[in-house]
Structure formats: C-alpha cells, structure tokens
Amino acid sequence: MKQLAVVLATASLALASPAIASSNTSSTSSTGSLAAFSTNASSSEMTFTYEGETFSYSKADVTITGDIAGGKNTLESYAARAEASKQAERGYRDMKKKFGVTDIAPNRFKWDAKGASGDPRVVVSIDRQLAFVYLGKTLVGAASVTTARDDKLTPQGIFPIWMKKDMHYSKAYDNTPMPYTQFLDQYGIALHAGPNPGYPASAGCVRLPKSFAKKLFSLTDLGTTVLIGA
Fold it and tell me: Where does residue 118 rank: exposed (0-12), middle (13-18), buried (19+ CB within 10 A)?
C-alpha cells in the first residue's frame, strides 16, 4: 500500500473542507486550541471544529456520488471524518442496546438480522476497534476489528466498496491471503478476514473475524458505503 500517497491524498482533501462548509460563529469549542480538527461524536449536530471555529455541513457534503470504479471516489474531508465518527458513536450505542454488551473480544462478533431490511452500511470505530453493520436503520452485526498499527494508516472518512474478491493475495506482503476482501480505495485499503488480536496491528486494512467477514461479504454490493471514524 502506498502509504505516502494515502497521507497526501487525505491531507489535500481534508484541508479543503472548511472552505465548503458553512461557518457557525455562535458555536464554540473547548478543544479548538488543542487540535486543528475535532468533532463531538456524541452530538447529533452535523458540525466539526477546525482551529477553534465550528463549521456545519450538509448531507450532500457526506454523500458519495459518481463513478466508483478504480477506488478514487472517496470522501476524506473533515466533514466526512466527522460524520464517520458520529456514526461510529451511534453504532456503539446501538450495539449496547441490541446485544447488551459494551465490548467484543478479539475474533468474536454478534449477528442478528432477523426482520431487518434496507441497504447495507458498514461503520468502523478505530478508537474502539469495532465494526457495526446495518441494514437500513437496523443494526444487524458488530465485531471486533484490527486497524493500522502506529507506523501505518487506516484512512478515515466515507468510502464505497468498489471491488470484491472471495480470495485476494497481497502482492505487497508476500502473497498473504486475504479472504473476503472488499476494497475501499485505490491504494489497497480493504475490509478482509485476517488476524484479529484485539489491538491495532494491520498495515492499513480493516481486519475482520473470518466468519463475520464471510457474512458481510454476502451482504454488501459494489457501492455499499463504509464509514471509518475515530
């Protein structure tokens, strides 16, 4: 995976975000002086903070449109990162309510799709190392995941699945097998089955418990939305 290219692409998109969002000067943030970008994931408001100023965004700012071929049509702006983090927080709350748990052990998952319908959606929480799967507005699955270790990057934002392979072999990592691979961007970041130790350890991909990855693979389509948040 081309790590530098991912960083540069992410940075260029993110820096453009405040310019397209509308400023809300009546809002303030106590975290603005601590970081250039932050968001209150527990808030339902579609806002984020950049350099101490709060910006609002619309559904259009976080909706993927156009051709997904080639994995170039991703949203990695501040608005997309904020929305992904907010949905990750909602996923965690929905998991606690539906499955009655506050965490999931490595290589384990919960699944109950009875009565659920609608388009699939995947939400990943990097901080909690969890993934949440929805059909429409209904949470149907949650699993422990493994994202990038400290010297690598799992990009945050909103991504369409643009290619699926039952079995992929990584050319960058000694033909390592990657069952149930679903590619998210042009740099090789993907959802796939793999070692799931319970802490960040991947080269950038989101590793899933194998049985969960198989269920997810059968559920999604090309173009299915994946949100990766903090």
Answer: exposed
